[in-house]
Specification:
Blueprint: E1 8-12, H1 17-28, E2 32-37, H2 40-52, E3 56-61, H3 67-81, E4 86-89, H4 104-132, E5 136-141, H5 154-174, E6 179-186, H6 192-195, H7 200-208, H8 222-229, E7 241-244
Parallel strand pairs: 1-2, 1-4, 2-3, 4-5, 5-6, 6-7
Helix pairs in contact: 1-8, 3-4, 4-5
């Protein structure tokens, strides 16, 4: 039920901490995986790790905020794998700039990476999935800050709320074509974009609101991404926001 044999997956941001773990999971399940990102050194490293574990992977250079580069990336994926069945939108960035100090260039940068890239990639890769006529899966990466928003990360929270909205909209639009669109809502998984805002008092606050009283490990996203990619295991799942957050979303007072 969870095998992805004979499929091809594209992981945008697959050279990051969380993206690389999800890319490895897809490869372990049998999918050929294209690691798409701007940093080819990191992308090549992820590919080597996947291949050393017996998987198949290729690195593709692209800026996910530019449609023409995504179109070129898709062509490379098709030349390499012949098709595309799964798209994971895992690129992301963050900032702790206070609201009244926020400049629009920073707003634009975060919105471009976190939200615009999801829209553009879904246009480019989603269209191809529809043209193939065999269905597919788009998996977006949201955040617990999307609902409700967290303090100190105003733009990030707004961008991830947008990801939730886009996920539900595209789920409705793509459903007649059997292309499912879902999002994973990770809790706190320390990665490059959030380490800089994890001060001791912030960590203490996070732990008070996380019933499991710990951070998540990247490997703990593997099962969810394979489930959502599988055309059998999640065949009737679309428009869903799946939490992997240690109970953060269930906590009040």
């Amino acid at each position: 039920m969870f095998t992805l044999d004979n499929s091809v997956s594209a992981v945008i941001g697959g050279n990051g901490v969380l993206g690389s773990a999800m890319a490895a999971a897809l490869a372990e399940a049998g999918s050929k995986v294209a690691i798409i990102g701007r940093d080819m050194e990191k992308a090549d490293l992820v590919c080597r790790q996947i291949e050393s574990a017996g998987g198949r992977a290729t690195a593709v250079k692209a800026d996910a905020t530019k449609k023409e580069e995504l179109e070129a990336a898709l062509e490379q994926v098709l030349q390499w794998g012949g098709r595309v069945d799964t798209l994971v939108n895992a690129s992301g960035t963050n900032s702790a700039t206070p609201f009244f100090e926020l400049e629009m260039d920073e707003w634009d940068r975060i919105m471009d990476v976190n939200l615009k890239s999801v829209v553009l990639a879904s246009q480019v890769f989603g269209k191809r999935m529809i043209e193939q006529g065999e269905g597919g899966s788009i998996i977006n990466i949201s955040s617990v800050s999307s609902e409700p928003p967290l303090s100190r990360v105003f733009t990030y929270s707004a961008s991830k709320a947008g990801v939730n909205s886009v996920t539900k909209f595209l789920a409705r639009e793509f459903a007649p074509h059997r292309v499912r669109v879902n999002a994973i809502i990770p809790g706190f998984f320390p990665a490059e974009q959030n380490k800089k805002i994890l001060s001791p008092d912030r960590v203490e606050s996070i732990m008070r609101h996380t019933p499991m009283n710990r951070f998540g490990e990247p490997e703990e996203l593997k099962g969810t991404v394979v489930y959502l990619a599988s055309p059998k295991a999640s065949s009737f799942v679309t428009g869903a926001l799946l939490r992997v957050d240690g109970g953060f979303g269930a906590m009040t007072i």
